[in-house]
Design goal:
By secondary structure, this protein is of the alpha+beta class. The chain folds into two domains: 87 residues, Translation factors (Elongation Factor Tu (Ef-tu), domain 3); 34 residues, no CATH class. Helices cover 18% and strands 39% of the residues. The protein is built from three helices and ten strands; from the N terminus they run E-E-H-E-E-E-E-H-E-E-E-H-E. The strands form three sheets. It has a five-stranded antiparallel sheet with strand order 5-6-2-1-7. Strands 4-3-8 form a three-stranded antiparallel sheet, with no helix packed on it. The chain has a two-stranded parallel ribbon with strand order 9-10. The radius of gyration is 15 Å and the shape is globular. The N and C termini lie far apart (37 Å).
């Protein structure tokens, strides 16, 4: 692993199937909005993997990752805090319109939705008059 790219600043288990990883990505963090995502390429021979962002703060982005595919397992098993991910492209996708909606229910399943729902719930809750209920099955 090279000392070029996006430095991993935090990595921790959330449960037996999921983990959180945080990387330095100031140019992405300053522009990221709920609904955006990034593409990870952990090394030059790796696959491009779309990833939802849980939080963007202080020049860093955090992602909840499920140990499900080749790249997510490789990232979990072989990369540690201080290592570098080769490429992260983003923010991509269309951000959600943040406004007063009133009562909002956000739901996700076991496989996907946790990261983006956290970010969206936090952003919508900060708007006066919104009451957010998040359901994760």
């Amino acid at each position: 692993m090279r000392d070029v790219g996006f430095k991993i600043t935090d990595k921790r288990d959330l449960n037996s199937e999921d983990y959180l990883i945080e990387v330095e990505a100031p140019h992405i963090a300053e522009k990221l909005k709920p609904g955006n995502f990034v593409i990870l390429l952990i090394h030059s021979k790796g696959e491009r993997v779309p990833m939802s962002v849980q939080k963007a703060k202080n020049g860093r982005i955090s992602m909840f990752i499920k140990k499900l595919g080749k790249t997510s397992i490789e990232l979990y098993e072989k990369y540690q805090v201080g290592d570098y991910i080769d490429h992260i492209v983003g923010p991509l996708g269309n951000p959600v319109e943040l406004k007063r909606y009133g009562n909002i229910v956000i739901a996700s399943d076991l496989v996907c939705g946790h990261a983006e729902n956290y970010n969206l719930s936090e952003s919508l809750s900060a708007i006066d008059g919104n009451h957010v209920i998040s359901i994760q099955s």
